[in-house]
């Protein structure tokens, strides 16, 4: 599958725009239209594995706690700001950026051209500013780009109707309930495409299967979820050969790639036809190689989805579950943690695998890399490695993290998140002007392979009425047309199921669903009407798009109170729970549910809710579990909620942790024995004449390593992954420059760390960082002839003695062969990168060469009888790595990489030197 591209830009706080940005101001973001267009306009290629810094784009981070905020926003919106001699002007922000307080600014030289490209040359003089900004802001959506642009699409009108339902709502500031005609837009943000087009997209992205649904971004302003449906066969059965779009064009159904609607095409009114839209895209985007469609996400089949997922406190606190019942629900997660703690190597391998399986993720993470090394080592000798001091400490950190999450209601239960879809048969009937019958009746749901009741949830969740107890059925129509709708929840077209779940729509929203009867039976289904804002989707007034209007919009979107409203609801829910009735303060919770919906949409509508004083009078108080483990004991503790179910669960997990886990004792191990197992005595004997001097150097390196590690901790608490990676790579290269025998280096590193410093050492990670290759090679040589492995179980009769970990079954298997470490070593070494100084160059000329071609080959160059590690391109020498006190050891190690291709990332350019970062290509 094609990997996502990542770029680096500056994100700077509003109150720091007068300062020079630093490396700490850089953030990494996935590819989007704006980034791709900037690079195309600058003629700058994307280079895999490099930083791909975009200096022309800056995100300004804004919070309403900053001083003189209104004055500063007016200033930058009006005049921009200047950094490094470049003036930046406001470009816009997506709805998500508005919620998180960020605005994008672009180099002034590119602003006009980018705005023209984003709007395909269309001028909009008047609009609802919040919607205008949100729809233009789709260009900041992260997605993968595919060449499979659908050329023939019928855009039909969105379908609005009313559904009469018994609901709760707010009228004149009071909560009322009764039957109301609720206005709804069916299939909001959803359409269908042909199976043929779906295959083209999958092929273009290298997906090994054909997803039944794609979350699309066809810029500008088309967004939504498109599901596969054989609409050609469907309409043929109905005797329908053409369909009319919103522009009045009659389309031959056999020629269509998709049938989408105006709820997906936000700017449809600004185009005279679909053909004009496609032609303008070709005119503006094709010259820049950007006539593509963005794919943000897609449906994965059930077999690839998680069978078990974590709950949240929002879900659990709104169920009819006593504290004792939550404790029972936690048993499964407790047992998993206990089995790893108790040393069950099968569960330990599965637990490590959760981390190691992420090894190929684009975002390097040192914990993931270490998990892969430890997973491999553990597979070769579980009993010995389980008692290794570094392994123990690493495992302890991961287990403690899981336990803390349990206190916050994150418990593993059977269930998963799935995209939602609304009856596509009813959709096609409506699109063709047919009577809407659909394939599902009111109250029915469908998903291939599911039958019976399931509890459904959508985040954020405020009120107990938002949890569904939904009946999944199948019938002749679903089996004929929807059998591919696996891991998709299909809602009917006749009730308010989407509105019930926090006002969900169908442009990519997901529900968490579970068949767990304890949860299904704990939903509030009686006397708990759906909470609906009958004035839902209220919008601001259309106005002229002026500089002042944009400034006012930015000021209006400063205050994001989604978390604030959620915390108020958590307080009232837990206070009710403490009094044995979750819905005791139903009026407050009903209002908060409606206000939350208004607040979520405020980035698009510009409308914020006004919260009653009575509802917010305890705004600074939080229930114990939240106060202690999410907010680190900050704020005020609501002691009168102690009997709430979530607090009972939290206290139980605390007690269980204290009683069950004696971490200090658990960490105790025979360090000398562990060291002896990792040391290759034969290799030490072989090189005994060199050992004395080598061990002196490694002792000094060990001292320096720990001193620098302490500085990093004080600097950023190890949160800067890039700094940590550079630090680890530097010491890996320095140590490996000392000798060609990896097992000798690892044996001496283990000796220094495990034996000589065992009383002062805490993590024992030094040898696993600097000499991990040697450790794995030593373990490989010490494997037993018959090796017990763990493999995922195929569902066959061979299963006799199995274990289950998060719903996936495993079986022990005897393998009469060694585990080879070669692949693990090779794969890990691909991650090596190092920053070095380059000399013997003309700075600007060198920079120009690297910009044109960033691939170099390391080779030796002899000058004055001295060998220099040098950079070559097309057999031509272009520069050498400087001989300095802090690079001599690294240079020696880099000689092992002669004739290896490296990617070069420029960090600093001087007149006759440069600083570069080398990555194995």
From TrEMBL:
Residues 64-630 form the RDRP core domain. Pfam families: RdRP. Transmembrane segments: none annotated. InterPro entries: RDRP (IPR007855), RDRP_core (IPR057596). One of its GO terms (biological process) is siRNA processing. It comes from the Bacteria. GO terms for molecular function: RNA binding; RNA-directed RNA polymerase activity. PANTHER family: RNA-DEPENDENT RNA POLYMERASE, RNA-DIRECTED RNA POLYMERASE. This is RDRP core domain-containing protein.
């Amino acid at each position: 599958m094609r990997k996502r591209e990542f770029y680096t830009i500056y994100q700077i706080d509003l109150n720091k725009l007068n300062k020079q940005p630093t490396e700490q101001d850089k953030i990494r973001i996935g590819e989007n239209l704006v980034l791709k267009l900037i690079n195309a306009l600058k003629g700058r290629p994307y280079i895999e594995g490099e930083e791909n810094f975009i200096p022309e784009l800056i995100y300004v981070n804004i919070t309403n706690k900053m001083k003189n905020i209104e004055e500063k926003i007016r200033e930058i919106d009006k005049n921009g700001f200047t950094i490094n001699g470049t003036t930046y002007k406001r470009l816009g922000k997506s709805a998500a950026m508005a919620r998180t307080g960020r605005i994008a600014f672009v180099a002034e030289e590119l602003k006009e051209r980018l705005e023209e490209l984003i709007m395909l040359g269309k001028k909009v003089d008047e609009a609802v500013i919040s919607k205008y900004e949100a729809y233009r802001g789709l260009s900041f959506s992260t997605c993968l780009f595919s060449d499979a642009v659908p050329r023939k699409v019928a855009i039909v009108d969105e379908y609005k109707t009313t559904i009469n339902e018994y609901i709760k709502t707010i009228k004149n500031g009071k909560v009322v309930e009764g039957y109301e005609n609720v206005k709804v837009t069916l299939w909001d943000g959803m359409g269908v495409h042909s199976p043929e087009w779906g295959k083209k997209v999958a092929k273009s992205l290298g997906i090994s299967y054909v997803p039944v649904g794609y979350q699309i971004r066809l810029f500008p302003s088309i967004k939504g979820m498109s599901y596969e449906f054989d609409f050609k066969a469907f309409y043929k059965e109905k005797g329908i050969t053409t369909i009319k779009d919103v522009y009045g064009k009659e389309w031959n159904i056999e020629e269509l790639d998709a049938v989408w609607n105006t709820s997906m095409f936000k700017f449809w009114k600004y185009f005279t036809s679909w053909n004009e839209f496609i032609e303008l895209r070709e005119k503006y985007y094709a010259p820049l190689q950007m006539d593509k469609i963005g794919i943000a996400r897609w449906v994965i089949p059930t077999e690839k989805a998680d069978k078990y997922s974590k709950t949240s406190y929002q879900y659990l606190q709104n169920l009819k579950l006593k504290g004792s019942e939550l404790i029972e629900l936690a048993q499964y997660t407790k047992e998993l943690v206990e089995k790893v703690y108790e040393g069950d190597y099968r569960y330990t391998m599965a637990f490590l695998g959760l981390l190691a399986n992420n090894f190929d993720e684009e975002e390097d993470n040192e914990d993931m890399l270490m998990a892969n090394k430890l997973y491999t080592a553990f597979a070769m000798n579980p009993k010995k490695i389980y008692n290794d001091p570094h392994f123990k400490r690493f495992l302890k950190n991961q287990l403690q993290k899981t336990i803390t999450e349990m206190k916050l209601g994150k418990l593993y239960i059977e269930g998963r998140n799935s995209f939602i879809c609304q009856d596509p048969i009813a959709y096609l009937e409506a699109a063709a002007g047919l009577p809407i019958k659909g394939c599902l009746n009111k109250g029915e749901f469908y998903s291939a392979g599911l039958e019976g009741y399931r509890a459904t949830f959508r985040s954020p969740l405020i009120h107990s009425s938002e949890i569904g107890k939904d009946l999944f059925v199948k019938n002749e129509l679903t089996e004929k047309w929807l059998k591919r709708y696996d891991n998709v929840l299909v809602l009917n077209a006749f009730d308010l199921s989407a509105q019930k779940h926090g006002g969900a729509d169908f442009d990519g929203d997901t529900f968490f669903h579970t068949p767990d009867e304890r949860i299904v039976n704990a939903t509030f289904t009686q006397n708990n009407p759906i909470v609906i804002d009958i004035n839902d989707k209220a919008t601001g007034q259309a106005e002229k798009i002026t500089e002042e209007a944009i400034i006012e919009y930015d000021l209006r979107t400063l205050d994001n109170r989604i978390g604030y409203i959620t915390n108020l609801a958590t307080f009232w829910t837990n206070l009710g729970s403490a009094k044995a009735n979750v819905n005791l303060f139903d009026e407050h919770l009903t209002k908060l549910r409606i206000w939350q919906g208004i607040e979520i949409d405020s980035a698009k509508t510009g409308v914020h809710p006004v919260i009653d004083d009575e509802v917010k009078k305890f705004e600074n108080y939080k229930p114990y579990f939240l106060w202690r483990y999410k907010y680190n004991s900050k704020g005020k503790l609501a002691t009168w909620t102690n009997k709430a179910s979530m607090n009972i669960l939290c206290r139980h997990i605390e007690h269980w942790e204290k009683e069950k886990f004696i971490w200090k004792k658990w960490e105790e191990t025979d360090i000398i024995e562990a060291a002896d197992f990792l040391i290759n005595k034969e290799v030490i004997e072989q090189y005994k004449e060199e050992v004395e001097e080598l061990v002196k150097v490694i002792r000094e390196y060990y001292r320096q390593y720990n001193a620098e590690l302490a500085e990093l901790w004080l600097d950023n608490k190890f949160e800067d992954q890039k700094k940590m990676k550079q630090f680890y790579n530097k010491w890996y290269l320095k140590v490996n420059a000392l000798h060609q025998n990896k097992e000798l280096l690892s044996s001496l590193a283990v000796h220094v760390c495990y034996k000589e410093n065992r009383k002062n050492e805490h993590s024992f990670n030094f040898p696993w960082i600097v000499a991990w290759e040697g450790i794995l090679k030593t373990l490989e040589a010490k494997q037993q002839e018959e090796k017990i492995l763990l493999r995922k179980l195929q569902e066959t009769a061979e299963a006799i003695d199995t274990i289950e970990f998060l719903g996936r079954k495993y079986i022990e298997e005897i393998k009469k062969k060694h585990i080879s470490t070669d692949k693990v070593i090779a794969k890990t070494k691909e991650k090596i990168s190092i920053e070095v100084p380059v000399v013997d160059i003309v700075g600007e000329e060198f920079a120009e060469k690297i910009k044109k071609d960033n691939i170099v080959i390391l080779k030796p160059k002899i000058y004055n009888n001295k060998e220099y590690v040098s950079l070559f391109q097309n057999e031509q020498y272009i520069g050498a790595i400087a001989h300095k006190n802090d690079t001599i050891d690294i240079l020696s190690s880099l000689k092992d990489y002669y004739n290896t291709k490296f990617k070069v990332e420029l960090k600093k350019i001087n007149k006759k030197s440069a600083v570069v970062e080398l990555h194995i290509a």
